[in-house]
């Protein structure tokens, strides 16, 4: 039984619904997790997804900013939204789905970007990001006996040396500073998570999921970062068939600066 889950920071779902539809028609994941949808629940374009078979949709949105959603071909149960840092931002949504006899809790995250200056004393956005990551350390992959876990999303941190185009040049750049990367590694360690994107593709192989809009020729420069992630509880690791990073989507019409990342399982 093959089963696939895609995560994608779409950077405004209403603006980019045409490429969402394009992706779903071609690649047909069972579940699509979107981040930075930038709309309220009532403004989310449900019908195009339902027309493609994604009839189970849950949304945690807000006006103009942030926002996460899960669109699924299979039923979603016990949906939950966590208000990390207690500021009212729509940055997390989760639900349980079932495959055969297996129950899996799926978390979809949009971690704060953190601004430009990696110093919380002068940049509150960076402090907010660090506080958010600190709270994530309490999230356990094995929180409930008998329920597996998958965590996906734009986590806005490239934790490993080969998750960025130049480790040395980005050590003082937000998303790859030591305090961020060590914080994310602790989320993984304390939560008992498995980094599925590195499960079959360990370092030193480079993996990127984001290329800046600021680059004149993003493909030629290839100055990417792995900001998007798929983790799981360790029991799902043996069932991972492959990870697909759709780099070509960065060159589509009106693209997001992130590309879809898909985990394919064979249960």
TrEMBL record:
Source species, domain of life: Bacteria
Pfam families tied to this protein: Exo_endo_phos
Keyword annotations: Hydrolase, Magnesium, Metal-binding
SUPFAM superfamilies: DNase I-like (SSF56219)
Cofactor(s) named in the record: Mg(2+)
UniProt keyword Magnesium, yes or no: yes
Domain Endonuclease/exonuclease/phosphatase: 7-258
UniProt keyword Hydrolase present: yes
Single GO MF annotation: double-stranded DNA 3'-5' DNA exonuclease activity
EC number(s) per entry: 3.1.11.2
Similarity comment: Belongs to the DNA repair enzymes AP/ExoA family.
Identification of the protein by name: Exodeoxyribonuclease III
